[in-house]
Amino acid sequence: MENYIPRLIDKKIKRKMNLYGAVVVVGPKWCGKSTTCLQLAKSSISFQDPDEYVNNKMIAETKPSLFLNNEKPLLIDEWQVFPTIWDSIRYDVDKTGKKGEYLLTGSATVTKEKPMHSGTGRIVSLVMRPMSLYESGESNGCVSLKQLFDGKNDVSGMSQLEIEDYAFLLTRGGWPESIKVSKDLCFDYAKDYIQSISHTDVITVDGVERNPSKVKSLLKSLARNISSTVSINTICNDINIKGDEISEKTVRDYLNTLEKIFVIDDINAWSPKLRSKATIRSSKKREFVDPSLAMASLGATDKDLLKDFNTFGFMFESLCMRDLKIYAESIDGEVYYYRDNNDLECDAIIHLDNGKWGAIEVKLGGNEAQDEAARNLLKIKNIVDEKAMGSPSFLMILTGTKYAFKREDGVLVVPLGCLKD
Questions:
Q1: Which pTM does this prediction carry?
Q2: Distance CA 391, CA 384 (A)
Q3: What's the number of domains the chain is made of?
Q4: Are residues 65 and 170 part of one domain?
Q5: Is residue 178 part of a domain?
Q6: pLDDT tens readout for residues 123-180
Q7: Is residue 28's pLDDT more than 80?
Q8: Could you give phi then psi for residue 413, rounded to 5 degrees?
Q9: Kind of pairing, strands 345-352 and 333-339?
Q10: Using CB atoms within 10 A as the burial measure, which of 46, 213, 218, 394 is most buried?
Q11: CA–CA separation, 92 and 364 (whole Å)
Q12: Integer Cα distance of 365 and 67 in angstroms
């Protein structure tokens, strides 16, 4: 396909195709799943094609294995529309033993007509998100997370991004189509996404009617509390204060639904072994899959952020979390956060499958803020039981500033515009 922008998940999909009969790529709509998988497929079926819906429905209800009579690798786009296809694929790869036969994409978790078999050992699932700044070309990638974990931490470099650029980028988001259009049009994608979520997607995921006004109120509350461990009770009170009555039960249902369609992408707490007797808090930190959805929910613009640096700081942290998740998963890691009952906290912990870990504090700017962040990171290092967990591969302050360097205390300062996987 012409003009395809390579994604970090590409190499992971190829790797899994050499190991499994089928690879499922899930994630939010418009993040590029189908486009990416089409690069590797020799044929494709789209279950969202309205011209073929009636015919596809009849096949799915009578003999779904007929879908498989196409050249391999076969891409089945939005497979969850007719979930009976899953068992046909699992049976086929079990029978043939062939690898890399099928690619499936999905933008919603199946909640009804679940497959009979899990597909374990035959089918593997990967999560795809909107584009990181490195993928979209805004980060120059002169600092590599992988190299930091490999012990190469003498970082240096300069980001080309100014503070105004970050305000624009987190408002635009990482949606592939928004990157291709002019600046006067690109903000519409996130706004239209919120409209689609509120009026259509929360219903089509499981057929349950939900109030669009209350969905929007919930999204606004999540945006106001982005990058925090706000409780469901607090969200409920926040919405009710704003004048749209909602119960905790409804909030739970709507949050669960937004998670199923990959709109919210919360961060779990890290639970390391500690030297102290501190109690680790376990609440999730609230995040959208892309900060542009938070901005669109609030009806805010990049210019609004430049007048409100408190909100800008939280939104910038959300932008960093999006990119860190993409980079971490590319190198077989996961992003967590840390907070204990002594209010010692860390914005992000990247923990690799091999046990290595690194701690990251996010600061939009400022030397004074960076000094505070460095002291906090060193406290985290000292409280973790290094005999059990190992020493951190790095301590990093992720910033919206210009230069990447190592401080005298060993803490790294890295602009988001310099980072890659």
A1: 0.95
A2: 8
A3: 2
A4: no
A5: yes
A6: 999 999 999 999 999 999 999 999 999 999 999 999 999 999 999 999 999 999 999 9
A7: yes
A8: -110, 120
A9: antiparallel
A10: 218
A11: 51
A12: 54
Residue 107: closest CA among 86, 89, 76, 80? 80
Instruction: Report the candidate in 199, 223, 195, 194 with the shortest Cα–Cα distance to residue 211.
Output: 199
Domain that holds residue 236: 143-420
Q: Give dist(CA 142, CA 239) in Å, integer.
A: 43
77 and 33 part of one domain: yes
Q: What is the pLDDT of residues 91-100, one digit of tens each?
A: 999 999 999 9
Which of these three, 87, 102, 127, is where a domain ends?
A: 127
* Beta bridge mates, 51: none
Instruction: Give residue 280's identity as a one-letter amino acid code.
Output: I
Q: How many helices (H) and strands (E) does the chain have?
A: 17, 14
69 phi/psi in degrees, rounded to 5: -80, 55
Domain contains 167: yes
Cα–Cα distance measured from residue 310 to residue 315, given in angstroms and rounded to the nearest whole number: 9
Same domain, 311 and 243: yes
- Give the whole-angstrom CA distance, residue 261 versus residue 278: 36
Q: What CATH number is attached to the domain comprising 123?
A: 3.40.50.300
The verdict on 42 and 166 lying in the same domain is no
The sign of the dihedral angle between the CA atoms of 75, 77, 79, 82 is: negative
Q: What is the 3-state secondary structure (H, E, C) of 123-159?
A: EEEEECCCCCCCCCCCCCCCEEHHHHHCCCCCCCEEC
CB atoms within 10 A of CB 225: 18
